[in-house]
Specification:
CATH topology: Rossmann fold
Radius of gyration: 18 Å
Number of strands: 2
Shape: elongated
Distance between the termini: 45 Å
Strand order of the largest sheet: 1-2
Largest sheet: 2 strands, parallel
Number of domains: 1
CATH architecture: 3-Layer(aba) Sandwich
Number of helices: 3
Order of helices and strands: HEEHH
CATH class: Alpha Beta
Helix content: 40-55%
Strand content: 5-15%
């Protein structure tokens, strides 16, 4: 749902993309770094309930487009966030048979 507060990169957008759901968002800083209009979602130029409704109806009426956006979004988030996040968390993730301490060292 649209927010009147600008929150940088809303986590809900990344979560929706990872779940394979189409995203309709306002083209605010932070959001435009993740959502590419027509490729990874649909962007609104400003906060407008009428324009939001128009984009939602468009997606409801165009299942092929909706599925296409959702499929691309899921692949995008897996590559952009999943692999990146795993590389960041790797030192802290215990492997079977190992325990890790908070400093990231083996125990």
């Amino acid at each position: 749902m649209p927010s009147q507060l600008r929150e940088g990169q809303p986590l809900v957008i990344i979560e929706a993309m990872a779940a394979g759901l189409p995203v309709v968002a306002t083209a605010w800083p932070g959001i435009v770094d993740t959502v590419v209009d027509g490729e990874t979602g649909l962007l609104l130029p400003g906060a407008s309930a009428d324009l939001l409704a128009e984009k939602l109806v468009y997606l409801a009426d165009n299942p092929v487009e909706r599925r296409g956006l959702a499929r691309y979004e899921r692949l995008y988030t897996q590559r952009a966030f999943g692999e990146r996040m795993m590389s960041i968390l790797e030192p802290f993730v215990a492997r079977p048979g190992q325990r890790r301490c908070l400093e990231g060292g083996e125990r």
